[in-house]
């Protein structure tokens, strides 16, 4: 297992512009050896540019980029110890699966017999044994994805870059591949840098996440930190969903004019009563305006003071469960949550 | 009424298709394939050498006469010229197409398109005669070379046996230059289209896996654009095989297939031989495409 304290990739004040557009500006962060690191953000946020900078398809306009303490911002892609799984897989259509996988070995003039053996091993690893003679066009999306993975891993790169590799797959297959990818990463122990715009995907696979917005990193941290203590409103909103409390309401609840977020699943919805809440708890009353049935959950919209609406998520439990309260539209209710669950954010 | 007709056609899509395609299929079948067939038929007749009349009896005599030294020379000459013209066109066209497809902005690409297409809009004859002026002994090219004191280089080239000659405009080299010039757009455009279709992610992937630019070119770009090169070469090859104007104006005044066809069906009145001559390019193209397919030129299509 790789040593967690060493740095695999390091960005030092990196900027990259495309004409007038700043794709990435003055960016500094580092990725630890052996971790599953996700770059999460909406399209155009700079995450893919970062990946392309690491791969060498883009050259930074300023700043330094290190892979294993070696400055490589001007090293061409073919001299970097990283490999990429592309969004569209980028398999060579005129070559068989085997030729695709052994492309980099062939460039190194490794003997045909050895190539075939390695290709078979890699196909085994990605669970596609015996498909070596097919053409990429004869494979399904999921199979192509695995071939792309095998091709990127055969050279034992120190860092594997993945550019939204599951984007083109359907939901079920995507969830299956998420588990497989994570297993694979644990098994081979190399650094994975994963670009995605799907927050669920980032949360379920990563050790750490960097949330990108407008060519900047909004927050970088473990999945738990990102989800439970978002630093900015953007992060709170982009990763999962959040209720935002600010202005007058925040003064009323928190005695402070700032912005606070609270996750819908951390709020309990209770009937009106005289019961005073504990010091640790925040309690506020409102009126249910909308109920959404979402299968596993109910989502209630509760209007607080005539303008602020708060979403509350309640698990869809058995109707006769003890203490279960399921209000109707128009009913007055109390919302209760722990003080620790609300989190101050900057805008 | 019109509404009822359109409803009827909508409900019977096959009939609709037949109505749309019918006239075209009849044209293609009768006028196009039919005349080709009658051409083929003519080539199996022969001419009575004594009376000069066509004998409408099946014979291979006309085809055999294609192999007489003078006729076979024409076939070899034309085929070699078509071959050289194709190679030279491809070599010149590829870098232009590559630049157009990979490195130009929208605007420069439009300029390139116009530059490639404009020659096609002006008269073919005018362009060929202009080349005669350019390549002639007193032409602009000689003048320029003399000015640069490198006319000895041209003399050296013109002293090469067979392809050389008195001047560029009376040598095979001249014929080749003009052929290449005239057919070049037909080579550039298919190659450019094929290059446009190569996703840049494939080039990234190749570099990512350790290929230097030259390796990426030969292992990825070239195989993927081969169908475009073959498409272009079909144009240059077959157009050269059939052309009778350029070798008549520029070159050594020895016959090419096109001229042979022209002479035999016109002044000589030997339509069977003319027909047999025109079957030759069809057969050569057939062989050419067969070889191209065998070599895997269409696998990336």
Explain what you see.
- The complex is a heterodimer of chains A (347) and B (301).
- Chain A is of the alpha+beta class and 347 residues long.
- Chain A has two domains: 7-232, Rossmann fold (3-Layer(aba) Sandwich), CATH 3.40.50.300; 243-345, OB fold (Dihydrolipoamide Acetyltransferase, E2P), CATH 2.40.50.140.
- In chain A, 26% of the residues lie in helices and 33% in strands.
- Chain A contains ten helices and 18 strands.
- Chain A has helices at 47-55, 97-101, 103-107, 112-125, 141-153, 171-188, 199-205, 223-228, 233-238, 248-254, and strands at 7-18, 21-32, 36-40, 62-67, 70-71, 82-85, 159-163, 191-196, 208-213, 216-222, 243-245, 259-262, 268-271, 281-293, 297-303, 309-315, 332-338, 343-345.
- In chain A, the strands form four sheets. Chain A has a six-stranded mixed sheet, sandwiched between helices.
- In chain A, strand 15 and strand 16 (309-315) form a beta hairpin.
- The model of chain A has no long low-confidence stretch (mean pLDDT 90).
- With 301 residues, chain B is an all-alpha fold.
- Chain B has a single domain (69-294), classed as MetI-like (MetI-like fold), CATH 1.10.3720.
- Chain B is built from 14 helices and two strands; from the N terminus they run H-H-E-E-H-H-H-H-H-H-H-H-H-H-H-H.
- Chain B has helices spanning 2-11, 13-43, 61-65, 69-102, 106-121, 124-135, 140-147, 151-158, 172-196, 200-208, 213-242, 246-249, 257-265, 271-294; strands at 46-47, 54-55.
- A two-stranded antiparallel ribbon of chain B has the order 1-2.
- In chain B, a hairpin with a 6-residue loop joins strand 1 and strand 2 (54-55).
- In chain B, helix 4 packs across helix 9 (172-196) and helix 10 (200-208) crosses helix 11.
- Chain B is globular.
- The mean pLDDT of chain B is 87.
- The chains are: A alpha+beta (347), B mainly alpha (301).
- The interface between A and B is medium-sized, with 24 and 19 residues.
């Amino acid at each position: 297992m790789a040593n967690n304290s060493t740095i695999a990739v390091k960005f030092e004040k990196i900027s990259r512009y495309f004409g007038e557009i700043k794709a990435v500006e003055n960016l500094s962060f580092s990725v630890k050896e052996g971790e599953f690191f996700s770059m999460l953000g909406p399209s155009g946020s700079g995450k893919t540019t970062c990946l392309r900078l690491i791969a060498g398809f883009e050259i930074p306009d300023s700043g330094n980029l290190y892979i294993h303490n070696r400055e490589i911002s001007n090293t061409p892609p073919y001299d970097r110890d990283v490999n990429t799984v592309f969004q569209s897989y980028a398999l060579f259509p005129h070559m068989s699966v085997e030729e695709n996988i052994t492309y980099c070995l062939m460039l190194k003039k490794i003997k045909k017999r050895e190539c075939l053996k390695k290709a078979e091993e890699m196909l085994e690893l990605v669970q596609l044994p015996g498909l070596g003679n097919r053409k990429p066009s004869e494979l399904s999306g999921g199979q192509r994805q695995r071939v792309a993975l095998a091709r990127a891993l055969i050279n034992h790169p120190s860092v594997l870059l993945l550019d939204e590799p599951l984007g083109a797959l359907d939901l079920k297959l995507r969830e299956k591949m998420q588990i497989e990818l994570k297993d694979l990463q644990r098994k081979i122990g190399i650094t994975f840098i994963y670009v995605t715009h799907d927050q669920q995907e980032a949360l379920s696979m990563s050790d750490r996440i960097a949330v990108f917005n407008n060519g900047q990193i909004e927050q970088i941290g473990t999945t738990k930190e990102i989800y439970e203590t978002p630093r900015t409103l953007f992060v709170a909103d982009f990763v999962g969903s959040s209720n935002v409390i600010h202005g007058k309401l925040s003064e009323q609840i928190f005695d402070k004019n700032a912005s606070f977020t609270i996750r819908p699943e951390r709020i309990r919805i209770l009937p009106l009563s005289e019961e005073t809440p504990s010091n640790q708890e925040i309690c506020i009353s409102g009126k249910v305006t909308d109920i959404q049935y979402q299968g596993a959950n109910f989502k209630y919209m509760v209007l607080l003071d005539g303008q602020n609406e708060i979403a509350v998520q309640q698990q869809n439990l058995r109707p006769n469960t003890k203490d279960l309260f399921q209000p109707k539209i128009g009913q007055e209710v109390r919302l209760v949550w722990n003080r620790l669950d609300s989190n101050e954010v900057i805008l | 009424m019109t509404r009822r007709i359109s409803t009827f056609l909508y409900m019977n899509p096959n009939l609709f298709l037949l109505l749309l395609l019918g006239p075209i299929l009849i044209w293609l079948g009768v006028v196009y394939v039919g005349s080709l067939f009658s051409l083929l038929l003519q080539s199996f007749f022969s001419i009575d050498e004594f009376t000069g009349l066509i004998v409408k009896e099946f014979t291979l005599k006309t085809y055999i006469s294609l192999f007489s030294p003078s006729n076979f020379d024409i076939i070899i000459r034309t085929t070699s010229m078509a071959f050289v013209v194709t190679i030279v066109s491809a070599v010149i066209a590829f870098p232009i197409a590559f630049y157009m497809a990979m490195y130009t902005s929208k605007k420069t690409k439009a300029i390139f398109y116009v530059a490639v297409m404009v020659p096609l809009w002006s008269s073919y004859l005018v362009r060929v005669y202009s080349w005669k002026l350019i390549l002639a002994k007193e032409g602009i090219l000689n003048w320029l070379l003399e000015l640069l004191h490198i006319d000895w280089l041209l003399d050296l080239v013109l002293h090469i046996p067979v392809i050389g000659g008195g001047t560029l405009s009376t040598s095979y080299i001249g014929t080749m230059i003009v052929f290449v010039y005239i057919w070049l757009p037909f080579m550039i455009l298919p190659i450019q289209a094929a290059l446009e279709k190569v996703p840049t992610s494939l080039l990234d992937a190749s570099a990512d896996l350790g290929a230097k630019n030259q390796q990426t070119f030969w292992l990825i770009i070239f195989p993927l654009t081969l169908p475009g090169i073959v498409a272009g070469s079909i144009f240059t090859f077959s157009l050269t095989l059939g052309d009778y104007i350029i070798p008549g104006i520029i070159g050594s005044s020895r016959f090419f297939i096109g001229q042979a066809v022209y002479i035999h069906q016109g002044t000589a009145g030997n339509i069977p031989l003319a027909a047999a001559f025109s079957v030759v390019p069809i057969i050569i193209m057939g062989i050419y495409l067969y070889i191209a397919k065998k070599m895997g030129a269409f696998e990336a299509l």
